[in-house]
Design brief:
Distance between the termini: 24 Å
Strand content: 15-25%
Number of strands: 9
Number of helices: 5
Structural class: alpha/beta
Shape: globular
Order of helices and strands: EHEEHEEEEHEHHE
Helix content: 25-40%
Largest sheet: 5 strands, mixed
Length: about 180
């Protein structure tokens, strides 16, 4: 990758670690990966929420992420897909936010050193603390002083600053590649 002039690439959120192990050694440009935050599972340029509320003739003051709207799959009460609408259309996000703090040494060993943090649903006062935890991990990785105890402390800091209504998991990272549909 990079023969056509690309200066970097973004790894899709659906790529599991076991596939990264095969993919990354063949890439000669910097790779970026989501290590914290919301994962978009659908985006439409259309105002789907506005269209829905107009259709049922219900009045809503706001349709943005602050409203806390979500959708669920029929017969699956555990689903809770956050949904909001802005000037770019309608956005639907996975149930949980990605948190790869405990997986950072594996990413650095590949190497995947450009990390992306998405704070779209994070508390504006707490997101900088989460970002600082990942920056600290990056610095300790660079100085080869990141230990399991330090990772645990940083993970606790991330969890303590995570919004109560958004759970954390590792997304597709630990999934068997044969399970990705």
């Amino acid at each position: 990758m990079g023969q056509q002039g690309a200066k970097g690439a973004v790894i899709a959120n659906e790529v599991p670690y076991r596939e990264l192990v095969d993919l990354v050694p063949n890439v000669k440009i910097p790779l970026q990966m989501l290590v914290y935050g919301a994962t978009a599972i659908h985006q439409s340029g259309r105002p789907l929420l506005s269209n829905y509320f107009n259709f049922v003739q219900a009045h809503q003051d706001k349709l943005d992420r602050a409203k806390g709207l979500f959708i669920a799959e029929p017969h699956k009460p555990d689903t809770h897909y956050s949904i909001y609408e802005d000037m770019n259309g309608t956005h639907v996000f996975a149930n949980n936010d990605v948190d790869l703090m405990t997986q950072l040494p594996k990413l650095a060993a590949l190497p995947v050193s450009h990390w992306f943090l998405d704070g779209v649903f994070a508390d504006p006062d707490n997101f900088p603390k989460i970002a600082q935890a990942f920056a600290q991990a990056r610095d300790w990785l660079a100085s080869q002083s990141l230990t399991a105890a330090k990772i645990a402390d940083l993970e606790n800091l991330v969890q303590a600053n995570q919004p109560a209504n958004r759970q954390l998991d590792t997304g597709f990272f630990k999934i068997d590649p044969s399970e990705v549909k």
